[in-house]
Structure formats: structure tokens, C-alpha cells
Amino acid sequence: MVSSSLLLLVGIVNAVLNTANIGSWLLLVVVMPITLRRAVWSLRNQDER
Prior knowledge:
Blueprint: H1 2-18, H2 22-44
Helix pairs in contact: 1-2
């Protein structure tokens, strides 16, 4: 979980530094935590399938 959070932070910093337009990275900031939460939920619930 720590490594996922760290990679998410690095991705956000990279997106902010490499883009001048807020619209190009705002969607990334909104979608990435949702995707990460879904991935963690999926990994936790593998035993039930």
C-alpha cells in the first residue's frame, strides 16, 4: 500500500511538472485514486470468487 501511494504521488508530481494546462492532469488526479481503490478491493476479494 505504501509503494502504491508513493507511485501515485510520483505520477501526480510528474504530471504537474510536465504540463502547463490544468485540464490535462486534473482528470488523472481524480481518476487515479478511484482506480487504486478498485484495484485494492479486487485483490482483497480474490478469495471469494
